[in-house]
Amino acid sequence: MIITIDGPAGAGKSSVARTLARRLGFRLLDTGAMYRAVALAGMRRGLDWSVPEELARLAQGLQFKLAGERLLVDGEDVTEAVRTTAVTAVTHYAAGNPQVRQHLVEQQQILAGQDNVVTEGRDQGTVAFPHAECKIFLTASPQERARRRLRDLESQGEPVALEQVLAAQERRDRQDASRPVGPLVSAADAIEVCTDGMTLDQVVDRLEELARRKMSNNENRKSM
C-alpha cells in the first residue's frame, strides 16, 4: 500500500511521515531529500546553475539508496547534510528541472517497489504515485510553517530571523506552485489536513486513522 503525503514547505510532512511509517511498520520515502541531494551534489561540484543540462546529467549519475530512514547517495549518508539553508536556497534548481524530476520520479517508483510505503513530497499523489490508495495533502498557515522551520534551523545551529524564514518560504511557495513540471497541487482525491494548533501526535493520530481505514477497505475488497 502506498500512502502519499504532499504539501508546502514547513507543513510538517517529514516528521509526520516518519512517525506514521513507524506506527504502521511501513518504509519511509522522503522525496524532498532526493531533490536536496541533487542540489548538494551540484554545490559540491561547483555546477553552473544556468546550465540545467549539467545538473540533469549529474542527477542521472547519482545512486540513491534507502537505509531505514536514512538517504544514501553514492554510498554517503546525506540525511543531515541536505537540510542546511545553503542547500535549501538552491534546491529549486533541481526541483524545477524537468529532466531531473523525470529521473527522480522513476527512482522513487523503483525505491518504493511493491512495499508498503509512506512517501512525502510535493507531487507524490499527482505524479509519482497517482494510483496510491491513500493520499494526504498536509498544510498549515504561513506563520505556523515559518515558526516550525525556524525551530528546525535553530536546532541545527543556524539561527536566523523569523522574517528571513518567511521571505524564503514565500519564494519557495511561488517556485513550487509555478514550476511547469510537478507543481505543488493537491490531488483531486487527496484528503486535506490543516495542522495549525495540532501536536505531532495529534496529526499522526488523524493520518493513522485515515490510513487504517483505507487498509481495512482494501482487505474487505480482497476478501469479497
Summary of the model, kept short:
The chain has 224 residues and is α/β, with parallel strands linked by helices.
Description:
The chain has 224 residues and is of the alpha/beta class. It has one domain (2-210): Rossmann fold, CATH 3.40.50.300. Helix content is 54%, strand content 15%. The chain is built from 9 helices and 8 strands. Strands 2-6-1-7-8 form a 5-stranded parallel beta sheet, sandwiched between helices. Helix 1 crosses helix 9 (200-223), helix 2 (31-44) packs across helix 4 (85-95) and helix 7 packs across helix 8 (162-178). The longest helix has 24 residues, at 200-223. It is globular, with a radius of gyration of 17 Å. The relative contact order is 0.21. The model has no long low-confidence stretch (mean pLDDT 92).
Question: What order do the helices and strands come in, and which of them pair?
Answer:
Blueprint: E1 2-6, H1 13-24, E2 27-30, H2 31-44, H3 52-60, E3 64-67, E4 70-73, E5 76-77, H4 85-95, H5 98-112, E6 117-121, H6 124-128, E7 134-139, H7 142-155, H8 162-178, E8 191-194, H9 200-223
Parallel strand pairs: 1-6, 1-7, 2-6, 7-8
Antiparallel strand pairs: 3-4, 4-5
Helix pairs in contact: 1-9, 2-4, 3-5, 7-8
